[in-house]
Design goal:
With 292 residues, this protein is an alpha+beta fold. It has two domains: 143 residues, Chloramphenicol acetyltransferase-like domain (Chloramphenicol Acetyltransferase); 107 residues, Chloramphenicol Acetyltransferase (2-Layer Sandwich), CATH 3.30.559. Helix content is 38%, strand content 21%. It has eight helices and eight strands, in the order E-H-E-E-E-H-E-E-H-H-H-H-H-E-E-H. The chain has a four-stranded mixed β-sheet, with helices on one face. Strand 4, helix 2 and strand 5 form a beta-alpha-beta unit. Helix 1 packs across helix 3 and helix 6 crosses helix 7. Pfam families: Condensation.
Length: 292
């Protein structure tokens, strides 16, 4: 019943909008992707996918044209917040929901929310691209330009389950047990308040942007060292954590797309995985030594 794994999306649409075509495009996306028509039930204590032939979801239309612009802004923010925090019932609810907010004839907000169990960040990009392509085709009375999907998410889960067993599973376990042997249990950050005895998961996030000048310098360093920008930023983060904690053994969890086959690139589904990256800062290495 938690909203922690909701993935909300808000699209501000300007210009004339054909509501019927937009809804048709959204319905086609749900028809294309079995993940968006999937529920999850417990069978003898085991989570089991149930793929629905049709999903009873509808796009909720919210007309705010009668409100002033300031009232519209407040109402839109409330709708956005409420949709983002409303939990899904994994066994019964469609795991995608949408609200179309009408501000005027030429201004709308499309609010979409998916549960993380059927989606991830990459999937939201797939969703946006398909919505754009389908709407542009249907508004011109053209058929869908999207190619049929070669596989569905259920095919991937079956392949993954069949692959990750026996000797392969044991090799994977052996590798990670070796990689994480004697790893520190936690990172002793100098926090403002005492660490609670029981993890509460009551956290938050603080978005920020880098200046253009700093971004250019990071890009230049990355190119000079022949590495990726991710590697440069990861190394900088490792060094920052070392300076805060003076711990030489740093472990960072980072999400990876986990789509290593071309058939998976156009699917909506939960593929993302968290990878543990361990860095040894003993021996006073230079930044470039850590980087490469």
């Amino acid at each position: 019943d938690s909203s922690f794994y909701n993935i909300p999306l808000a699209l501000h649409l300007e210009g004339n909008l054909n509501q019927d075509v937009l809804i048709q495009s959204l319905e086609e996306i749900c028809d294309r992707h079995e993940a968006l028509r999937t529920n999850f039930i417990s069978v003898d204590g085991v989570a089991t996918q149930v793929i629905q032939t049709q999903t009873p979801w509808t796009v909720n239309i919210v007309d705010l044209q009668h409100l002033s612009s300031s009232e519209q802004e407040i109402a839109s923010q409330e709708l956005t917040q409420n949709q983002a925090i409303q939990p899904f019932d994994l066994a019964r609810d469609p795991l995608i929901r949408a609200n179309l907010v009408i501000l005027s004839e030429t201004e709308h907000i499309l609010l979409v929310c998916m549960h993380h169990i059927v989606s991830d960040g990459w999937s939201m990009g797939v969703f946006l691209q398909e919505l754009t392509d389908l709407y542009n085709a249907y508004i011109q009375n053209q058929p869908s330009s999207l190619k049929p999907l070669p596989i569905q998410y259920g095919d991937y889960t079956l392949w993954q389950k069949q692959w990750l067993q026996g000797d392969i599973l044991q090799r994977q376990l052996d590798y990670w047990q070796k990689q994480l042997a004697d790893a520190p249990a936690l990172l002793s950050l100098p926090t403002d308040r005492p660490r609670p005895a029981v993890q509460s998961f009551a956290g938050a996030h603080l978005p920020f942007t880098l200046s253009w000048e700093l971004s250019q310098k990071l890009t230049q360093l990355t190119q000079e060292q022949g590495v990726t920008l991710f590697m440069t930023l990861l190394t900088a983060f490792d060094v920052l954590l070392y300076r805060y904690t003076e711990q030489e053994d740093i472990l960072i969890g980072t999400p990876i797309a986990n789509r290593n086959r071309s058939e998976l690139e156009g699917l909506i589904g939960f593929f993302v995985n968290t990878l543990v990256l361990r860095t040894d800062l003993s021996g006073d290495p230079s930044f470039n030594e850590l980087l490469i």
